[in-house]
Amino acid sequence: MNNAKNCVLLAAIAATAGSSYAFTVVTDASQMSTNNAMTDFENTSISSRGNTFSLDGLTFTSNRGMSTVDISLFPVNGTHVDGMALFPRLDGEVRAPVFPIDIDLATPVAQFGFGWFDPNFAGNVAEFYDGEGNLLASVEPTPGPKFGVHADYVGVMFDEDVIAQVRIIPVETSDVFAIDNISWGAIGEPVPAPGTIALAAGSLVLGTRRRRG
Ligand SMILES: [Ca+2]
Ligand SMILES: [Ca+2]
Fold first, then answer.
1. Can you give the pTM of this predicted structure?
2. Ligand 1 mean position to 183 CA, how many Å?
3. In this structure, which residues have their CB less than 5 angstroms from ion ligand 1?
4. How many domains does the chain have?
5. Which domain holds residue 83?
6. Kindly report the CA angle at 150 between 56 and 4, in degrees rounded to 5?
7. Tell me: the pLDDT tens digits for 101-126?
8. Phi/psi of residue 14, each to 5°?
């Protein structure tokens, strides 16, 4: 089922060969680290959010405005998306036209994924950029039936904290969508390998014994 996504992965590596980092495409929230932060919009109300909206350390931007909406009455509710979600229209009406949503991270992260409500056309894409605006990865959701009976999960995992911005771009302004259950997390400083820790502990014991002797 992931052939399409894998093709996009390879294409992304080829297209950014000058600054490429290896990454894994994520297709379900269960693949993401349990240490990640989560923005699920459940603490928001149904409201217009303007062209720029900040929540949980994420800054969302969409040129035609956004709103937080309740999608719980749609059949797909509970699969990748749930309850309150972010919708790329200022008036909150779940209809076309819709426009891209950019998400800026306060500090770069290694993992980023989200539920994509109702992707219907091939060519929708989530683009992942580093802090200098270089495209790192490009992942398309799997299209499905219309009218809110379908959702997909789109994400990537890197070995380094390189993701600074994510652009969610509908291929057509008529492909109404929303985003929810955003998961992101940094790796931070590399963790020492277990062998290194054991060696350091052994040295400490040795040093203690010498002092006693
Ligand atoms: Ca939600
Ligand atoms: Ca749609």
1. 0.82
2. 12
3. 40-41, 82-84, 180
4. 1
5. 3-212
6. 90
7. 999 999 999 999 999 999 999 999 99
8. -65, -40
